[in-house]
Amino acid sequence: MVITVSLGEQSYDIILERDAINKASSIFNLARKVLIVTDSGVPTEYAKAVASQCKSPYIVTIPNGEASKCLESYIMLLDKLVKESFTRTDCVVAVGGGVVGDLAGFVASSYMRGIDFYNIPTTLLSQVDSSIGGKVAIDFNGVKNIVGAFYQPKGVIIDPNVLKTLDKRQFSAGLCEAIKMSANFDAELFELIASTKNIENDIDIVIEKSLKIKRDVVEKDPKEKNLRRVLNFGHTIGHAIESDNNLSAYLHGECVALGMLPMSSTEVRKALIPVLEKYNLPTQISVSPKSLVDFITHDKKASGDEVTIVYCEKIGSFEMKKIKISDIEGYIKEVF
Q: Mean of the per-residue pLDDT values for the chain?
């Protein structure tokens, strides 16, 4: 299946197809120097499968985890591009999760003012979320995604077969992003995720519907000036949880699960909590609401003493509200 993201000259195709990773050279232009960025948590077979189809491949493996999305990794990859004499006609391919995609994409966006970037997400989280939309970034001074750019890929391959090596916790964390989008846009998708007896059997349709939701939003608002902020449902508080070193054991999707609950009506929470629990996602956390508010103050979504939140009153809908950052403490206390 081909899902086209229509952004004028920056348009690109997402190929959603099983075993597509082994056909990458027929989808991407790999007849040149290719920097393949992956991480230690990704099975080596995936980067090697791509490398075998490149004219001149260079594989760089970064340590697994959010800590690798940093200035040091960024500089290291730029150094590799310079030492191997990459030019504007060469490219970068990310093979991994969101950390790899964000980092590799930001490197591609800034090397020689921009070279071609392709993305092959290998986690469910990155397949349904960060694979689309062109947001690339690194973390800096403890603030997530604070240094980055909007830089669209030239193409994306989503191969559900690679999910067979993903552990159950990572799978559930990725599914949370699909739950998030369905809660705001697609009550039928939410019901499918809630009621299915075997989510693995339905994952292709979940990925497809999630991508089309995000595609439609991104096309209307490619640089997150208005509508695209709806994709931040659960992220205002979720990013604050991620930024708290005392809560570093939580995965991104788990933080989003927790972050959605204070931003939902009582009716939505009654529907949402059983779904989150079904997939072993957290619904309670022991945390100081004030400490989370302190992190939100530094969030890039904040403007002065205000922040735009995404609130879900009813499954399949959303509302964007501008509130004082200090008021978020009340939302948190209501749930946690």
A: 94
